Amino acid sequence: MLVNNMNEESLLETDDIAPEATETLDDAQKLAQSQEALAYLAAEFENYKRQTTRRIDEERTRAKRRVLETIFPAIDNFNLALRHAGSAKDVASFKSGLDYISQQLETALGEVGLAPIEAVGQHFDPTRHDALEEVEIEGQTPGTIIEETQRGYTLDGQVLRPSRVKVAK
Known about the structure:
By secondary structure, the protein is of the alpha+beta class. It has a domain at 113-169: Head domain of nucleotide exchange factor GrpE (Nucleotide Exchange Factor Grpe, Chain A, domain 2), CATH 2.30.22. It has helices spanning 2-84, 91-111, and strands spanning 114-116, 129-135, 145-150, 153-155, 158-161, 163-168. The strands form two sheets. Strands 1-4-5 form a three-stranded antiparallel sheet. Strands 2-6-3 form a three-stranded mixed sheet, with no helix packed on it. A hairpin with a 2-residue loop joins strand 4 and strand 5 (158-161). The chain is elongated, with a radius of gyration of 38 Å. The mean pLDDT is 87.
């Protein structure tokens, strides 16, 4: 009889522990499922980052390609001018050809958002101009740009390179 009493007592104790053990098991399963879901989401995010980086790189390449394709005609004409520079009979026609090439380049680059900064005759603006020298000139308003030594450019309205200028004192 003693054995039967022990079995009954241990069964009673097991019944008391069983709900707690079941809760712990459920919690462990939920934790495992959450960890699996987190690992899946982390892998998905890594894939997203790789795809986004690849797409950005592809778009940069396409943008570079578009810019280069717009200036190819000017480059071709410039190379043609260089080949015939030695046999040019008059300087005026050669200069006219170079002016045409310059215009082609400016037009092509303008199509992608590049624009020259107007400088000579304008009031000096430190956000758009880089002053190399101040020169005293009679009849000029101080702060007026009198000479541009290097042209500046904006790209889509933002200064890419400021104009290098001489300014009236």
